[in-house]
Design brief:
Length: 229
């Protein structure tokens, strides 16, 4: 999967279901996609936040897109998160995680910031997985989309590939099976939890899930709530 900044729960369900998770960081950046954006809860409604990037373009690879050196923007985002979630039951620990991620001095590309957001959340939840970077591990960008994914599976010694549900529009089980790889698509089940006793707003950033649910609840109830099709 492309690295996304604090993605929604379905992204972490893919990690939960995997032995090896590959950050697909050497594919093209998607303007107005989810790589540098997501949604949080503000005044009971979803609100989009964006990590500003410098000269972001769909002609660039994700790993080559720099984030703007603008501490004010990050601090404004942190202030919004603090304002809206300060009374959430798990605010203290989760806010520290978010602050540590967004203010990390070493994260100068959107790829590194997004990957840091994902791995920091996995550390918090105790998800011990093997993570790879496609840009440094496989040297196969000349291959077509599906062929490249199958090549990665073979290089990892894997015969089962799990893709997000949206992959149904791109990949077929038959094509993968012809190369001795089983393909499944992960479909998250709807999950609800209390959000300040207001009407539930689904599919927000993992930030929202973490703020309102304990580590145990996430691991035992929310992460396993999906089907493979």
């Amino acid at each position: 999967m492309q690295p996304y900044v604090f993605p929604y729960i379905g992204y972490f369900q893919l990690i939960y279901a995997s032995e090896v998770f590959v950050f697909y960081d050497d594919v093209h950046f998607i303007n107005r996609g989810w790589i540098n954006r997501n949604r949080i809860l503000v005044n009971g409604k979803d609100q989009l936040f964006t990590i500003p990037c410098t000269d972001a373009s769909q002609n660039k690879l994700i790993k080559d897109v720099a984030i703007q050196d603008d501490p004010k923007t990050m601090r404004n985002l942190l202030a919004t998160i603090r304002m809206t979630y300060s009374k959430a039951p798990f605010f203290h620990d989760v806010y520290q995680l978010i602050e540590r991620t967004l203010l990390a001095k070493k994260e100068i590309t959107i790829s590194s910031l997004a990957i840091g957001s994902v791995t920091n959340v996995c550390d918090y939840l105790g998800l011990r997985k093997t993570f790879r970077l496609s840009s440094t591990e496989y040297d196969n960008r000349e291959l077509k989309k599906a062929d490249r994914l199958m090549d990665i599976c073979h290089k990892e010694g894997m015969s089962h590939y799990i893709n997000a549900a949206g992959g149904k529009e791109i990949y077929t089980k038959e094509y993968f099976k012809a190369d001795n790889i089983d393909l499944d698509f992960l479909v998250p089940r709807p999950v609800e939890y209390a959000q300040f006793n207001r009407a539930f707003v689904p599919w927000l950033s993992i930030i929202d899930v973490l703020m309102f649910n304990s580590i145990e609840e996430i691991n035992d109830k929310i992460l396993p709530s999906f089907s493979l099709e």
